[in-house]
Amino acid sequence: MYVRPINKKQLLQIEGAKFGYALSQTRSMKRYNARINELRIPNCKHLVFLSDDYWRCAAKHYSMTIYHPVGTCKMGPAGDPYNVVDAKLLVHGLLNLRVVDASIMPHVPTGNTNAPVIMIAEKAADLIKECWKNTNNLNI
Length: 140
Ligand SMILES: Cc1cc2nc3c(=O)[nH]c(=O)nc-3n(C[C@H](O)[C@H](O)[C@H](O)COP(=O)(O)OP(=O)(O)OC[C@H]3O[C@@H](n4cnc5c(N)ncnc54)[C@H](O)[C@@H]3O)c2cc1C
Prior knowledge:
Layout: H1 8-24, H2 27-31, H3 52-61, H4 114-133
This protein binds flavin-adenine dinucleotide.
Flavin-adenine dinucleotide binds at residues 67-68, 101-102, 112-115, 117.
InterPro entries: FAD/NAD-bd_sf, GMC_OxRdtase, GMC_OxRtase_C
Family: Belongs to the GMC oxidoreductase family.
Pfam families: GMC_oxred_C
């Protein structure tokens, strides 16, 4: 069976998980009854809970977006085939087509995505108003 090698992000995840667990064991956190969720990741059940091997396995199998999918139309300079929109949210290579949603975020933010989406929409409204102010900017 092929076992995918661990990547840098997963290594960070493992260290983060171990740190989180260690934190939960401090006297201060115990005062608040902090404890680990003991539900085992199904594909890692055979490994010793909380061992490095367990965390390594968990990092490979625990994959979810926590409902924050982003990046399918990411913003970035033209030339990189993975970049879809420019800094004005205009689609590279097309005229006057903008993408205004979570998909333009190049990376998932650390926090929730709803407020940044609203901010992107506010910015887009300003960009569109600015464009309409000077109809020479419109190629229609
Ligand atoms: C269960 C859940 C919980 C979440 N909780 C939080 C939270 O607590 N805090 C937070 O900040 N974020 C939360 N999010 C994330 C947040 O809701 C999203 O990041 C945000 O709504 C993304 O906005 P969007 O405009 O990119 O996409 P959406 O809100 O998904 O809007 C896309 C719109 O396009 C429409 N659409 C799709 N295809 C077509 C089509 N072909 N033609 C016309 N219309 C189309 C859809 O009907 C929809 O209205 C949560 C998401 C989920 C799913």
